[in-house]
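in:
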């Protein structure tokens, strides 16, 4: 019960910290996280603190905090994903790819990580691997209009005309569905 009560008190602080980061006040987040320094049991607390340090220009401290969080939370997808992004930012591409794969082994349906993996594979000129990951992504979210369009572009630029046409056709169909949904939504708002 004590742990639950502690978690209840932590969530409002984390919510305020997220809001401060979004509003461009990382210094407030650092101060709040220092006040919660005893809360090493919260991966989200550690990640918010690392993001605030990074936003303040202290990438080395942010990296150290994420590494420490990884030791404390070795199977937390958000921690590993953050470490992967830091690796990519530090031009450690192979490490980033490996870490994105670890996240996906823990959470196959993590769309954000799968998108990051596709981007990383493309930056490494691994088109076939990127296309395979896109297929997985689109099987998880077949309504991802931008990913269908991007797939069409990749295929077209690499001489694969027929699959490109199919991807663009899917993107166009999704676009029309979204237009109709928006028109219906506006009509309903006008009626109410």
């Amino acid at each position: 019960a004590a742990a639950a009560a502690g978690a209840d008190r932590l969530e409002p602080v984390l919510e305020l910290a997220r809001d401060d980061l979004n509003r461009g006040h990382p210094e407030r987040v650092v101060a709040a996280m220092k006040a919660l320094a005893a809360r090493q049991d919260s991966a989200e607390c550690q990640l918010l603190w690392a993001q605030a340090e990074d936003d303040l220009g202290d990438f080395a401290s942010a990296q150290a905090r994420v590494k420490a969080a990884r030791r404390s939370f070795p199977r937390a997808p958000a921690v590993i994903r953050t470490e992967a992004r830091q690796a990519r930012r530090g031009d450690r591409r192979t490490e980033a790819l490996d870490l994105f794969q670890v996240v996906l082994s823990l959470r196959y349906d993590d769309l954000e990580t799968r998108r990051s993996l596709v981007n990383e594979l493309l930056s490494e000129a691994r088109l076939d691997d990127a296309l395979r990951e896109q297929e997985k992504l689109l099987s998880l979210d077949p309504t991802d209009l931008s990913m269908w369009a991007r797939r069409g572009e990749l295929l077209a630029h690499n001489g694969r005309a027929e699959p490109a046409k199919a991807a663009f056709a899917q993107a166009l169909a999704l676009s029309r569905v979204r237009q109709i949904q928006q028109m219906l939504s506006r009509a309903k708002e006008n009626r109410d």
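note: DSSP finds ten helices and no strands in the chain.
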